[in-house]
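User: Predict the structure for this protein chain, please.
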Amino acid sequence: MTKALRPSGKDPSANDVAGAEGGVHPRSGMSPVETAQYVAEFSAELSYLAREANLDLLAYLLDMARLEAIRTVQSGDKNN
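Assistant: Here is the predicted structure, written as structure tokens:
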């Protein structure tokens, strides 16, 4: 299995610690909205894979995670 990369193409386990100022997560270097966008995209891919393997409950749960992430992105965009 391959590791998931952040949208920047970096390995999320890399130790590039950013400051917590400006709403950026200290460990990931991504803002909450960027993180939610990444989760939305990645969970859509995972849901597709789960459906292809007939893992319907898992696919459903991943879809719920995707929808919550999208809601977070939309509410975060309105705050800017």
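Residues 33 and 73 are 5 Å apart (CA to CA).
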